[in-house]
Amino acid sequence: MEFDPFSREYYDDPSEVYGRLRDEAPVYRNDHYGFYALSRWDDVAAASKDWATFTSTYGVTLEQLTAGRPIPYDSLIMIDPPKHDRLRSLVSRVFTPRAVAALEPMVREVIAACFDELGDRTAFDFVEDVAGPFPVEIICRMLGVPPADRQQVRHWLDIALSREEGSMRTSPAGYEASIAMGTYFYELSVAKRAHPGDDMVSRLIEVEWEDEDGRPTRLDDIEIAGFSSLIGGAGAETVTKLLGNAVVLFARHPEQWQLVLDDPGRIAGAVEEILRYHPPSQYQGRYALEQHTLHGVTIPAGSPVILLTGAATHDPRAYDDPDRFDIEREPKLALGFGYGVHSCLGAALARMESRIALEELRARYPRHRVVEEGLTRVQMSNVAGYASVPVEVG
């Protein structure tokens, strides 16, 4: 058995290999790329919480992890407690339930505007025309990015995350895109420091806290640029992939879409089931700081490890009939937005955006058809979903 997370077969549909991993090799060793993989629900959940053994400080992509050295800069998803807790607290207040609820009018306005731009068209690409543009518009509004620049952030992200088949390395164009985005957010921080506004970047500039020695300190522009790139990336990619997956799943399971048509109150549950069935983030990268033995296999200290969320959420040890798409399924811990200290900071916002987008789709296009032969999937590191979902309406 071979599990290659950069193969065409994996990008198209990893479900068969996931099943074999869970049953035959729950601790799998890939000699070609040099990583171990955990695929069962209990193991992925436990490792996600155990940051002392499975650290994020060596990176989260296989490209970073196989380098075998700690990341030399602070990024929220690549540091562990106690520093992680202090930095996370700086931005978490923006994503409290009350703060997210207050964003709903703005979120509805942005999503409705995307649907409005479709006009009387009888065919469109749901990802390119709807699910792609609005999440980055929302998160960039929150950050304080000027309107003319918001969609550029999405294009930088798409290039930076893309991978050639059979390669875990970022392409030269991907490096250029990452540098361009980081430079942009650095310059935005410098500009907001001179002329603050009512936005997240301006608030991060103003935040002051005490360091380990009790001295007052603030974030510098490089740190704010890192925060902004991370938040912008997560806010743009996750919802886009979740909603593309949603439309395809409902097309293939029309009886489930009919449940939504019958009762829009089922949409919140549908979002949870979509997140379980096709999580936008299929795996999270970790690095074993200590030797760890599981299912009779010893993972040596100093090993890259990937936690296969996409396999864990279909584990029959954790779910009844896990390959059945059922929006009325009793909810379980949502591994799809991460678990433990690195759980998704913006999960509540992502759920709200997804719910509202599906409400709009139900209201405007209750009967639509996905053109299956036009579907194309992304080839990205860690992120899974569709690059194109052509839809016919009318």
Can you walk through the features of this model?
With 394 residues, the chain is α+β, with helices and mostly antiparallel strands. It has a single domain (8-393), classed as Cytochrome p450 (Orthogonal Bundle). The protein contains 17 helices and 14 strands. The protein has a five-stranded mixed β-sheet, covered by helices on one side. Helix 9 crosses helix 10 and helix 13 runs parallel beside helix 17. The mean pLDDT is 94.
Question: Briefly, what is this?
Answer:
48% of the residues lie in helices and 12% in strands. The chain has helices at 8-12, 15-24, 41-49, 62-65, 83-92, 97-102, 104-116, 126-131, 133-143, 150-161, 172-194, 200-206, 221-252, 254-262, 267-277, 309-312, 347-364; strands at 27-30, 35-38, 54-55, 123-125, 208-210, 216-218, 284-288, 292-294, 297-299, 303-307, 368-370, 376-377, 386-388, 390-393.
Could you list the spans in which at least 5 consecutive residues all have pLDDT below 50? none
* Percent of residues in beta strands: 5-15%
Give the integer mean of the pLDDT values: 94
Oligomerization = single chain
The CATH homology group name: Cytochrome P450
Under the CATH scheme, which class?
A: Mainly Alpha
How would you write the strand order of the largest sheet? 1-2-10-7-3
Radius of gyration: 21 Å
CATH architecture: Orthogonal Bundle
Identify the overall geometry. Answer: globular
CATH fold name, please? Cytochrome p450
Write down the domain tally: 1
